[in-house]
Specification:
- The structure is a single chain.
- The chain has four helices and seven strands, in the order H-E-E-E-H-E-E-H-E-E-H.
- The protein is α/β, with parallel strands linked by helices and about 190 residues long.
- The strands form two sheets. Strands 2, 3, 5, 6 and 7 form a five-stranded mixed β-sheet that branches. Strands 1-4 form a two-stranded parallel sheet.
């Protein structure tokens, strides 16, 4: 009887610990990017939600990467001017299947059923408007490809997508800093 009681207690703890397992929203830490100080008094982040094509089947909610992108935009620019304005417009943000390779025969047994190549695309526009209402526009776009096997777990798929997203943001960020160092945008920078 004593053994049965101990067995019931251990089984109960195992069942309770498995059933009460909470799913935490995945937090990511983006690489800290150098903040750009701008001579603008008005900064607006515009998101065109119709241009988003981000499927949920890789384990993310649709809004997760959009929130990360918004956070990057808000941390990237420091507004410290008394005139001029800036609009950061996210024109396109999509994840598309590029190529699907299906394995057949013995390869299907040893590998997985298919490998899918994805393209993660991002297009941004920065519209600088000076006091004379002259608009200077900087268009940036980037794309990165990655491959996921269907044998990967959802957490592995998330890691691949998140790593690709971080790499894409790093490339866009470097290109943005390079372009803003050009003479045409120098009047909008407070520090070079």
């Amino acid at each position: 009887m004593k053994k049965t009681f101990i067995y019931l207690i251990i089984t109960s703890f195992l069942l309770i610990s498995c059933s009460n397992k909470e799913v935490f929203k995945e937090k990511t830490k983006l690489k800290e990017h150098k903040t750009i100080s701008l001579n603008v008094y008005d900064f607006m982040l515009v998101i065109d939600s119709q241009s988003f094509s981000m499927p949920d089947y890789l384990g993310f909610e649709t809004n997760f990467l959009i929130e990360q992108l918004t956070e990057w935009g808000n941390k990237k620019f420091k507004v410290s001017g008394e005139r001029n304005s800036l609009s950061l417009i996210i024109r396109k943000f999509s994840l598309e299947k590029k190529n699907i390779k299906k394995y057949k025969g013995l390869k299907k047994i040893f590998y997985s059923e298919e490998r899918v190549e994805y393209d993660l695309n991002l297009e941004l526009s920065l519209n600088f408007i000076d006091v004379k209402t002259t608009t200077n526009t900087l268009n940036l776009s980037g794309s990165i490809s990655f491959i996921i096997d269907d044998s990967h777990s959802i957490s592995q798929k998330r890691k691949f997508l998140l790593a690709s997203y971080n790499e894409l943001i790093n490339k866009i960020d470097k290109r943005l800093e390079y372009e803003l160092d050009k003479e045409i945008f120098s009047k909008f920078r407070t520090t070079l």
